[in-house]
Amino acid sequence: MPATPGRALRPTTKVMPGQARIYNRSLVLQSLYSDGPQSRADLARVTSLTPVTIGALVSELITEGLAVELGTRSAARVGKPATLVGFDPSAAHIVSLDLSPDAVFRGAVLDLAGTILATAEIPRGGRTGQAAADAATELARDLVDRAERPVLGIGVGSPGVVDSEGVVLSAPNLAWSGMPLAEVLNQALDTPVYVANDANVAALAEHSFGGATGSGVLVLTIGLGVGAGILLDGVLVRGDRFAAGEIGHLIVEEPGLPCVCGRSGCLEAQLSPPHLRARLEGRSAAEQEEVLNQAGTGLGIALAPVISTLDLGEVVLNGPPDLVGGSLLEAATTTVRRRVLPVAGKPLVLRLSTLHENSILLGSAVLVLSSELGVS
Quick one: DSSP state of residue 73? Predict the structure, then answer.
């Protein structure tokens, strides 16, 4: 099942019988995945599971190809050298789709460690509704055909509000309303499919691959739409209606620019790359600076109450660096620190993502890893 509200992405301790076998299997896998090769005794110690349980779980993982014996540890202790066991990232492949760019749909084949092995894209060409779903299916089929290992699952980062079953409840830029995207892809490709909001999967990518260190992290994705993914103590915040982080349609300016949602003055109308590039085109350097400062100020206005309410320690901007870096980032940082208490604003880290254009592809892979193997 996909990660749900209140569920930590990574198992951290053993549980009681009933849910024990699956959970403890994930516990062992997570230790190998995060910390590298270990002996069976090491695994028993760090997981608090019994040697007998560890032995059975490791044998199961080796049989499935997810773990492999790597030989003995260099003799540093008295007694027989321990045999090391490691996670095998080549055991299966993952197909990831990023539907957030405004001009193309992007996809990749990855191994279980998040290494991108092949990429592909398909022009969006302004397609919406069923035509956009068909384009996503075509891209996924191409990537499944390219995979050289069994496909563990397909992960998708989509704009809009997405429920826990992979139904896109609302994505105005793609004209999707109640689009059962996970079901559409599953029926076409007969493979487990997990779909989540693009900003949420970008947050998962920062959690697993991007070096986010705080207990409260917000990742703002600036693409076809504008939205935020929020992680609190390792738990993805989804909200009662799966719309947590949908700050793109907060009104930050009145009167303001017209927005695709039918209103005006929304943050997305200021920040989305197509709108921003159109406003920058043909302007002088000084005028461009003013446009970027205005967009950064609007972003800071939207972020400040969220940062203050949740006591976030880190905000990561995931979008075109030439647009969201520099003046825009500086204006947003200045605005946030001016609007929140110094105790919250001074230590705040507000930075660009280091994962760049691969953030949503990596986060979509985390969706599959978490759902299928219980690791991230």
Answer: P
Instruction: List the structure tokens of 36.
Output: 């590298």
pLDDT reported for residue 76: 57
Q: How far apart are CA 342 and CA 358, in angstroms?
A: 34
pLDDT score of 3 more than 50: no
- Select from 247, 199, 221 the least CA-distant residue to 324: 221
Instruction: Show the tokens assigned to 338.
Output: 């001016």
CA separation, residue 23 to residues 89, 213, 292 (Å)? 20, 24, 48
Rg (CA), the chain: 22
* For residue 320, cis peptide bond before it (omega within 30 degrees of 0): no
Q: Rounded to an integer, what distance in angstroms lies between the CA atom of residue 161 and that of residue 248?
A: 12
Domains and CATH numbers, the chain: 20-87 (1.10.10.10), 93-203+359-373 (3.30.420.40), 212-353 (3.30.420.40)
At 2, the pLDDT band (50, 70, 90 cuts) reads: very low
Q: With a cut of 70, say whether residue 1 has pLDDT above it.
A: no
The beta-strand segments (E) located in the chain are 38-39, 67-72, 83-87, 93-98, 104-111, 116-123, 151-158, 161-162, 168-170, 193-197, 216-222, 226-232, 235-236, 314-318, 349-352
Which two three-digit tokens encode residue 188? Answer: 């076409």
CA-to-CA dists, residue 316 to 84, 101, 233, 349, angstroms? 37, 18, 16, 8
Residue 172 CB neighbours (<10 A)? 19
Identity of the residue numbered 11: P
């998962």: which residue's tokens? 204
Q: Which two three-digit tokens encode residue 66?
A: 């997810």
* Predicted confidence (pLDDT) per residue in 269-326, tens digit: 888 888 899 989 999 999 999 999 999 998 999 999 999 999 898 999 988 888 998 9
Assess contact for 333 and 217: CB atoms under 8 A: no
- CA 191 to chain CA centroid, Å, is 20
Secondary structure element (H or E) that encloses residue 286, with its range:
helix 285-310
Question: What's residue 75's pLDDT?
Answer: 59
Is 16 a residue whose pLDDT tops 60? no
